[in-house]
Each structure stands twice: as structure tokens, then as C-alpha cells.
Amino acid sequence: MSQETAIANFKKFQESWIEALRHHLNHLRSAQNHHRNSATGDEERLREAVESVMEHFRAYHRAKWATTEKDVIGVMAAPWSSALERSLHWVGGWRPTTLFHLVYTESSILFESRIVDILRGFRTGDLSDLSPSQFRIKFVKGRTVSEIQCETVKEENAITEELSEWQDDASELVMGTSSDSDQRIRRLAEIVHQTDDLRMRTITRVVELLSPLQQAEFLIAAAELRMGVAGWGTSHDRRRSSNV
Questions:
Q1: Which end of the chain is least crowded, N or C, by CB within 10 Å?
Q2: pLDDT in tens, 119-128
Q3: Domain tally for the chain?
Q4: What are the CA-CA distances from residue 192 to residues 61, 67, 89, 110 (Å)?
Q5: Long-range contact list for 56-60, CB < 8 A, 24+ apart?
Q6: Cβ(81)–Cβ(187) under 8 Å?
Q7: What are φ and ψ of residue 143, in 5° steps?
């Protein structure tokens, strides 16, 4: 398979993946509402819906991994993304620590909207039960969320340094004076693999920190953010093209 074909195939996969994500998101919302409105709560249905979304993310991870093996430069260029999305990319995709900020933001918004009920002692089990300060000190499996976030930041910084070193040597590759171009391209693919692995590990670790209802709210927020940025970016590109 040629590099052009690999990128074209992944672009088609990306489009169908986003459409399927909407389907999984609707199913997750339905399970979430059923859990909230049920007298006993249907936690098993909610867990299955959460796992379905997580498997969908893992499928994307596997497809991108395979495409990176065939054309890492094409993956870094991300022709399937809008100009806005590419401007936000970090090593070919979203920055893993974004997920922690998303949790803090969502928990803060829900906390403020339900402050009266919380002060009365009512607990919903969703992200409003975790204010930003509570979340930072919450122990999960003997560790704090802030510790996991710090570890993720360290890994991000290490990858950024690796990419910077690769870019410093890229002039020889571009000018065709490098004697080990294949090895350097392979090194770039390894950096992208490390980054995608960190993305998948981060979203998995965050989900593992939360209760099923909190997991649902977090994944819905993450999916809506991703689709929202993609939709806004695509609309902007179309307006820009029509004005040319």
C-alpha cells in the first residue's frame, strides 16, 4: 500500500469514526439518563456504554498506529483535520493533559450549578461531587489525581524534548545529505507512537479514577469538545475558501 493510499484510507476512517462516535455518544447519554431516572439505577448498562466508548477510542488508536507505520510524515501533516485543529495539535494530536483540565472544568461547572443541593447534603454521584480542590486530594489506588497529572506533564515534556532534538537534525533530512534518512523517519514514528500511547493511557487512567456516572459525564464532555472543535474548524475553512 502506498503512502498516499494509507493517508486517504485513514481520512475515510476518520470520517466514519466521528460519525460512529456520535452514535456511541447518544447511547451513552441514554444510559446516563436511564441510570439517573431509575429508582435503583442501572449501573451495568452505564458501564457497558462507557466501555463501548473506550473501545471506540482504542480502535482509533490502533488505526492511527498502523497508518503511522506507513506514513508518519502524512500523519503529522493531518490532512483530515481543519486548520484550527492543526493549530491546536501537539505531536500530531491533542495534548494529554487537556483531559485533566476538562475534568476540573466540568466538575467546577456542575459543582456551582448544584451548590444548593450539595450544601443540603444531597449527592448525585456525578462530577459535581468533586470540586477542583476535592479532586486534587482524592486518593485513588493509593495515589492522588495531581500526582498522575504531574507524571503526564513530565512525559509530555520528555516527548517535546525528543521531538525538538529530532527537528534540530531535520535539516540534513530535508536537504538530502543525511545517510540514515530511513532511520530518522523511523525515529519520528517512534515519537508519534509514544505520544499516542500517552494519549490512550491518560484517558484510560482518568476514566479509572471516576465512578460510572462520572465516567459518562467525562466522556460525553471529551467527545463533545472533540466534535465541537472539528465542526467549528471545518466551518471556518469553508468560509475562508468561499471568500478566496
A1: C
A2: 344 444 444 4
A3: 1
A4: 11, 11, 12, 35
A5: 56/17, 56/20, 56/21, 56/24, 57/200, 57/203, 58/200, 59/17, 60/17
A6: no
A7: -135, 160
Q: What is the pTM of this model?
A: 0.82
The cell for 192 is: 508519534
Q: Which residue has the cell 493531518?
A: 78
DSSP reduced 3-state for 160: helix
H or E element at residue 221 = helix 212-242
Higher-pLDDT residue of 65 and 125 is: 65
User: 3 Cβ partners below 8 Å, 6+ apart?
Assistant: 70, 71, 73, 74
Mean pLDDT for all residues in the chain:
82
Domain residues for the domain of 67 are 3-242
How far apart are alpha carbons 41 and 61 in whole angstroms?
32
Position 4 scores a pLDDT of 82
pLDDT above 50 (res 113): no
In this predicted model, what pLDDT tens digit does every residue of 220-237 receive, in sequence order?
Answer: 989 988 888 988 898 988
- Rounded Cα distance, 237 and 234, in Å: 5
Asked if residue 86 has pLDDT above 50, the reply is yes
